[in-house]
């Protein structure tokens, strides 16, 4: 179905605060491209600078990117890189989520505009219930569980960590945008201004930044009449989309 003026897209950049080059890439993709929102990782050393710099961009929505750990695909399959807490321990997960929320409030000075998690940990219990409960309490959307339909296909790797670079080219993003139908959408992205050495998703971030700021993509958005909004800006529209 061809998008029309009733197509609203929140282009959300994950991993804000993870590293200076990620901060730079996300903010450039907001200033010069189509990014309207970002998810802040409050545990990382660059989080304070990210919050400070994001405050200079009032139209950039900021949510909480809950960080409980990370996995990487290696020669022997998926292996754990780090673990913040045992994701099966409900008490420890709840305490850590609360701690990260408080850190977010300290850094940003307000409540998060939305909730999601690093590597989608909140799709599994008990994290899922804890995050959904928090989303209801704050009255904000939770990724995968809100009126905003999630699109994660603008991503330069396959599910097993293999290369899928065609997905993050101008042509790839153009095709994604043209397949959207009317309604509320979240399009995830992971731009950066330089490679992220410790991440399994590294050089792909640079390509994402180039695509997100390209004139061709901006022309496609204008041609299709897509409205680019943050979660806060789109909130009044959610009453027509259900819960």
Polypeptide structure, described:
This protein has helices spanning 20-32, 47-54, 90-108, 127-138, 170-179, 204-212, 215-224, 231-234, and strands at 7-16, 37-40, 61-66, 69-74, 77-83, 115-117, 149-151, 183-189, 227-228. It is an alpha/beta fold and 243 residues long. The chain has one domain (7-240): Glycoside hydrolase/deacetylase (TIM Barrel). Strands 1, 2, 3, 6, 7, 8 and 9 form a seven-stranded parallel β-sheet that branches. A two-stranded antiparallel ribbon has the order 4-5. The longest helix has 19 residues, at 90-108. It starts with 6 loop residues before the first strand and ends in a 9-residue tail after the last helix.
SSE topology:
Blueprint: E1 7-16, H1 20-32, E2 37-40, H2 47-54, E3 61-66, E4 69-74, E5 77-83, H3 90-108, E6 115-117, H4 127-138, E7 149-151, H5 170-179, E8 183-189, H6 204-212, H7 215-224, E9 227-228, H8 231-234
Parallel strand pairs: 1-2, 1-8, 1-9, 2-3, 3-6, 7-8
Antiparallel strand pairs: 4-5
Helix pairs in contact: 1-6, 5-7
């Amino acid at each position: 179905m061809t998008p029309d003026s009733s197509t609203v897209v929140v282009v959300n950049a994950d991993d804000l605060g993870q590293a200076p080059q990620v901060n730079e890439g996300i903010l450039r993709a907001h200033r010069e491209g189509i990014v309207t929102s970002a998810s802040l990782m409050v545990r990382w050393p660059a989080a304070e600078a990210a919050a400070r710099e994001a405050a200079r961009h009032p139209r950039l929505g900021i949510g909480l990117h809950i960080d409980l750990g990370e996995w990487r695909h290696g020669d022997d399959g998926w292996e754990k890189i780090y673990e913040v807490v045992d994701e099966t321990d409900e008490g420890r997960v709840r305490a850590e989520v609360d701690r990260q929320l408080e850190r977010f409030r300290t850094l940003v000075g307000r409540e998060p505009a939305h909730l999601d998690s690093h590597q989608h940990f909140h799709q599994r219990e008990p994290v899922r219930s804890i995050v959904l409960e928090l989303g209801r309490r704050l009255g904000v959307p939770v990724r995968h569980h809100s009126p905003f339909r999630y699109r994660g296909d603008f991503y330069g790797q396959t599910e097993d960590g293999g290369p899928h670079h065609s997905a993050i080219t101008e042509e790839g993003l153009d095709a994604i945008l043209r397949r959207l139908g009317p309604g509320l959408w979240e399009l995830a992205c992971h731009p950066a201004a330089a490679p992220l050495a410790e991440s399994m998703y590294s050089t792909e971030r640079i390509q994402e930044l180039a695509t997100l700021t390209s004139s061709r993509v901006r022309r496609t958005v204008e041609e299709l009449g897509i409205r680019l909004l943050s979660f806060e800006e789109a909130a009044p529209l959610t009453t027509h989309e259900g819960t």
